[in-house]
Amino acid sequence: MDRRQFIQLLASTSLINISNVEAALSLNDVRGGAKSMVGLDVSQMELKIANYYISSFLRNGIPRGEGQTLKPIRDVGANQAIKDIAMPIFHSSTRKNLQWHILLGESRHFKSGSVNAFTPGGGVVFIQTGLIKACNNEAELASVIAHEVGHIEYKHAIRRLMANEILKQYDLTVDLKKLDMAQSHLYQGGEVDFQFLISVSNEVLYKGFTRLWEYEADAFILRAFQYAGYNVNDASKFFYNLMVPSANIGELGRFGTCLFVSHPETLERIKRIDAIASSMSSYGALKNDSIGFRYLKKTFS
User: Fold this and answer.
1) Whether pTM exceeds 0.70
2) Which of 11, 45, 175, 208 gives the lowest tally of CB atoms within 10 Å of its CB?
3) How far apart are CA 48 and CA 64, in angstroms?
4) Are 272 and 236 contacting, i.e. CB atoms less than 8 angstroms apart?
5) Window from 27-31, 120-124, 209-213, 297-301 with minimum mean pLDDT
6) Closest CA to 297 of 148, 125, 85
7) Crossing angle for the helix pair 138-153 and 194-228, nearest 10 degrees?
8) How many domains does the chain have?
9) CA-to-CA distance for 178 and 196, rounded, in angstroms?
10) Are 159 and 213 in contact (CB under 8 A)?
11) Which tens digit of pLDDT belongs to each residue from 121-146?
């Protein structure tokens, strides 16, 4: 079995499984406070994880890999500015029972300042100062915040917890390093046995339906923009900043992107967001850069 045959087989397998698993998770997950079939209250677990992230961040910072530790920014003006930008976006969510937090951090041990934002769920969003530097205007920053809020809106952290519990029942685990091993193995012309196929297929399945979650979170940007008063046609603008060629991708990375990468290709995301935006209208007077955003840019650029 050559590399192309292997990836085609994975694609056909994962398309079937993604559909079934996504449907199963959608059914039970997101009826408020749904419990997983092993009796764990995943909604409460989501909140506990979110609170743990907050306390760890404020106390010692959060390890982010590659020598990075995300430490809190103590600048009162900067924290108030990011909160003022985020609050209307938080209010666009239907999860009104959450206590929303946006936390501004800096990777002190990373040379170039990481361009990133993430959420552990539970109403908590982390923004790294490198991201602010990369944003050309407030709408771009708002789109990233809205994307993370979209993950919370659609309860992706809960669904991830449920997926892990379901996999555990079948003695399956998700080790994302297996994908790198599989890529290297195939690139070198290695053969695979059936057990290896099943193992890696599980990784592709997991990354496959997390890609669907990214599309959902991207679509939420449009709703948030309408609610908060940003131009919906600006919703995809920040994604252009991500379209920088990577010297580390190589032939295999380009060939395997659609199967092996959890975040969808940037151009595809732009097309999807713009397609939705074309059918929508912005309401009232549109927001321009606020005093708070200008303060953030002055402080972190």
Assistant:
1) yes
2) 175
3) 19
4) no
5) 27-31
6) 85
7) 120
8) 1
9) 10
10) yes
11) 999 999 999 899 989 999 999 999 99
